[in-house]
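hiii, so i know i said id send this last week but things got crazy w the move. better late than never?? heres the sequnce for the chain we talked about at the cafe, plus the structure i predicted for it. fair warning i was half asleep when i ran it
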Amino acid sequence: MFKRNLEQPIIDKLQDEDLWKLLKVDCRNQEIFFAIRDNNIGFYHKGGRLFEFSKNGFKTHFKYASVIGKKAVKSDYLTANELGKCELIKDFSENYGRIKENCKLYSGVEADGVSEIYHNHSYFSKENIVVLDIEVSFETMNKTYGQTQDRIDILLLDKKTKTLKFVEAKHYGNSCIRSKTTPKVIEQIERYEEQIRDKEKVIIAAYQEYVKKIKEIFTNVSLPEPKNIDYKVALLIFGYNKDQEKGELKLIKEEIETNGCSVYSIGKTNSITDNTLANICKTQ
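okay and structure toks below
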């Protein structure tokens, strides 16, 4: 079952954590994206999942947390002798800034581009259309291709119409958007749209609960509960230059649109505005 819920003991445990004091500020400042799952929370930063929180507390990937403690570092450079005396951090709050830097270093170009969208347009922004969730995962309905999960990059919420809109984002260099026969992204989006139609009521109910929990954890967040869902998944293509826009991109878009998919393109995701998101939501 698709769920977006947090039991009260998990919320209480989170609020007692020292690390939460740092993360909470960064969430409000849109440095960290806070996403609720089924009784756990994902904290996303610059294209990576910085931390996960559940009843067992915080955890992160070891490559992010491999950080020397602050007290051992007196300058930007270490001698071999000084390195031998260094120790790794003992808790996540210590040298938290370096953990964030490490997270960013491991992000691919596509994940980094998507992060520009959720950092600049999260539900903490004052805009009408906001990013409500990211990396939305469903158990696949069609196991033909060997996949167990369908994962959609971005979920937008139009606060005026209270409508949910899913968006799949692809960098221009992604091979899924081009093919001599049929681009793989077409089949991918068709699967996603089948998921949405099949689970419409479940998805809306899950995100109504999601919004309630967000407003409980973060006070003064102006966020309505969703009432509607757009069945069409928009494809966002980004990361191209002007020459590519006039050349191959035009052919790529024509091919995908001919197969019934909605396409929106923009060179750089950091140039996306509220109007851009509005236009993405209008794609049919």
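btw The CA atoms of residues 213 and 219 lie 10 Å apart. thought thatd interest u
miss u guys!!
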